[in-house]
Amino acid sequence: MTIKNNYNRRQFLQSSALALATAAFPKALLANMEMGTVKSVATPGFNPDVELEITAIKTAVPIFSGNKTHVYKYESKLLKGPADTVQALGDIHLGARLNFQHGQKIRVFFRNQLGEQNIIHWHGLHVPQKSDGHPMYAIESGESYVYEFEMLNPAGTSFYHTHTHNFTARQVYKGMAGMITVSDANEKKLELPQGEYDLPLVIQDRTFDENNQLVYVHSMHDRMLGFLGSTVLVNGQPNKEFEVKSRAYRFRALNGSNSRIYKLGWDDGTPLVAIGTDGHLLETPETKPYIMMAPGERVDLWLDFSGRAVGSKLVMYSLPYQGLMPAMGKMQQGRGRGRMGMGMMGMGMMSHGGLAQGAKFPIATFKVTAKVSDSPKLPQHLSTIKRFTDADVDNASNPIPIALSMGHMSPQINGRSFSMDRVDATEKVALGSHKKIRIFHAHSEGGMGMMGGMMHMAHPIHLHGQQYQVVSRKTTHVNEENYATVSEGFLDKGWKDTVLLTPGEEIGIIKPFEDFAGLFLYHCHNLEHEDLGMMRQFYVS
Questions:
Q1: Residue 100 and residue 212 share a domain
Q2: pLDDT confidence tier of residue 148, bands split at 50, 70 and 90
């Protein structure tokens, strides 16, 4: 099968692009450009174990009583492979949960029926450039694109979402995302909860008007700070209540919000147990008083309701914290009309839309509805992780900088905004290398002056391609009182693809660049910041 895709060159060939692009890296990398056309071909000889068809559509779903809410959605259809590969989550805006196995060869026929450009990024998966969802591959409505890749990831939780340049935030906000799970032989030996005991926990915040329609603010002020909704949805539903049995569950938590940062914790102070982060099982379970989750991050939670009485309820909150939003943002936080159910208002949520960044509010309720005697035991060893050190990199004394700034009303990395056709010298890396990378606020070192201080805020940093390891957090410039409200909630011991940089911090990571050459993005996963240009790309060759 051959599918030919027309691509709007204006999206990435800006005023002076082509001559500069060919000077920066080979022309062939730019979407295989042939007379303004991108060709996506189902490769002869690639024999997939799984074939899917995913279609981007406009539809309407019931979120509240009354009018249905108009949303964008990814609809999935299984063409070949195990029957449980596509797991629909009901009549909600989220796409189906896609369940893959390590080693599978996967082909996805993506069809865009949205009425605007679209492309899918497989967040957390280690795939070739052509299958990563780089915005250069965005296709017009009515066109199609073919993804082909082998599942190289081990067991864990990832997700898929739109990555259309300048429109990612709005399209994700309107619904374009879904969960991915990967299993492997090691995970199966652990006998972790599965089936009805292995559940998604997709957390998003949205604002609705009196007609149940989504409201997305487009003012520059709101975009600079990141959009915050007034209603919390879990798995596409407000006031979410899970009916559970008195046993252990695996809940795969995903922060699918545009910019909101959650501090997950129980109302009764019970610690949380994590068994996985960002697409990979941890080496051993980690017990935390709370867990910080930035947009794009995932945490596999071991929630054990053993010993709890039938009829008892436990409420998971986003607990209060401070210091992750600049002072000038406090007037913005929580603006917009709220659309709350009475259950949430009864638990203390502000009905006027006052969900500030760092406020306390409920996420979901867990009600024990049945007593059972059997429950799996928490494994004390989950996976084996080789920890990287400076001995594994070729630039230990000269880390690649990712310096974040908010100057001149333009979020930037290393003083530059995103350019589809450019990479800097520090962004050219050798295929097969391991690089040390330093993530920090440029204004913490005096680079942005007053604007830097005014816009001192947290940034979740996502790197495409292979996952990386956090090797250091330096807190020389942090406000210790603020930092104390979040510092116990970081999960840094596992593999990561998204890490939260708080004000004043500096984070060191080591990232491998193996298997695939090409262009791989890195950006702030505050999606409003990404669309404003806080995104760059590595050229791996």
A1: no
A2: very high
